[in-house]
Write the structure tokens for this entry.
Amino acid sequence: MALTAAMAATAAAALPLTPDSRDAASENHASSGLWRSGLFVTTVVGASLIQASRAVMYGFASLQWSAKGLGGTSIGLLWAIGVVAEVLLFAA
């Protein structure tokens, strides 16, 4: 709860820090063209669906491990080992 309040306070404090209107207009114009590209939108939607499917798989894997008797700490360690292994695999 305190973390959420701190994040909200930080966001509220940053609201008056708007960029120069000319800079914002040029950035907005540049980024709007990207979203009009069918290839870009298709790529973003595809990547989003892949990430969503993996999130569902991770959630159900945790539920299955829990049903098999593994504790929360063990499940967390399995995920941590998986993340470290993935980082090492892509770093090599």
Q: What stands out?
A: The mean pLDDT is 83. Residues 38-92 form one domain. The CA atoms of residues 22 and 35 lie 21 Å apart. The radius of gyration is 21 Å.
